[in-house]
Automatic annotation (TrEMBL):
Gene3D superfamilies: alpha/beta hydrolase (3.40.50.1820). It comes from Streptomyces shaanxiensis. The keyword Magnesium does not apply. Pfam families: Abhydrolase_6. PANTHER family: HYDROLASE, ALPHA/BETA FOLD FAMILY PROTEIN (PTHR43433), NON-HEME CHLOROPEROXIDASE (PTHR43433:SF3). This is Alpha/beta fold hydrolase. Residues 37-249 form the AB hydrolase-1 domain. Keywords: Hydrolase. GO terms for molecular function: hydrolase activity. SUPFAM superfamilies: alpha/beta-Hydrolases (SSF53474).
């Protein structure tokens, strides 16, 4: 099922629903009501092969909603690189619940990893937006996410900042990556991921990061895990690089099992 959703600020979001093919056994709770809402990384979109591969992996554990963030692919608007994208995720979660799913697990990669953290903080029990609006999540998985904004400590991140902040970089984003990037700076600067994490409790949280991540070194996941305290779980994956491209099928299966056991 494919449709365009509408965010609270009026942006159209290209979204896909796959009902999945759940396999039941006696070692895990029933997952028939579980849906994964997948938040892709920067320059991804719902049709990119690496996003489809993630979605296919999670259909073995439950239904899956994927979508393109604003400014990406066929969605409207322009990317704010993790700020107003929280509204895109909220629209996707509401849609998933409207399809009859009682349990939602948000799974985000890189930029999407920061978005799922901020979304859970804003729409959770300790957030500023009432969970009764149907946009809350029951568990959160953040993969390859930054802990803080404006990080330029790696060559990959310096190139990304050029792409976002320079007019010629935004042209490359538009025509090279199908990503339309907003020219305005953040005003105000949104809550950082590490600031968001303490507000997620008691919602279960899993932080996943590779020890060969070329964008964000290990101090980022460790900062997030420290901020999470006892309610967060940290997986440092040996040999793993960055985000969806580096998440192998075995890791995605483990994340799926975690979600089934924690997402409700």
């Amino acid at each position: 099922m494919r449709t365009f959703l509408h965010t609270d600020d009026g942006v159209t979001i290209d979204s896909v629903y796959d009902p999945g093919a759940v396999v039941y056994d006696n070692s895990r709770p029933p997952a028939g009501d579980l849906v994964f809402v997948v938040a892709h990384g920067f320059t991804g979109d719902v049709d990119k092969p690496h996003v489809r591969r993630v979605a296919e992996a999670f259909t073995r554990q439950g239904a899956v909603v994927t979508f393109s963030f604003r400014g990406h692919g066929a969605s409207g608007g322009r990317s704010t690189v993790g700020d107003r994208e929280v509204l895109d995720l909220a629209a996707a979660v509401r849609w998933a619940r409207g399809l009859g799913h009682a349990r939602v697990v948000t799974v985000g990669f890189s930029m999407g990893g920061s978005v799922v953290l901020r979304h859970a903080a804003i729409y959770g029990e300790n957030g500023e937006t009432a969970p009764a609006r149907g946009a809350h999540t029951d568990a959160v998985v953040s993969v390859s996410a930054p802990a803080r904004w404006y990080y330029r400590g790696t060559p990959h991140m310096r190139r990304l900042h050029w792409l976002v902040t320079r007019p010629e970089g935004r042209l490359v984003g538009r025509y090279g990556f199908r990503t339309r990037i907003h020219h305005r700076d953040w005003d105000p600067v949104p809550m950082s991921p590490v600031e968001a994490v303490p507000r997620i409790a008691p919602t279960p949280l899993l932080i996943v990061h590779g020890d060969r991540d070329g964008y964000f070194p290990l101090d980022h996941p460790r900062m997030l895990a420290q901020a999470a305290g006892d309610h967060g779980e940290l997986w440092l994956e040996p040999g793993m690089g960055h985000a969806e491209h580096a998440a192998g099928d075995a890791l995605l299966e483990r994340i799926g099992h975690w979600a089934v056991s924690q997402g409700g």
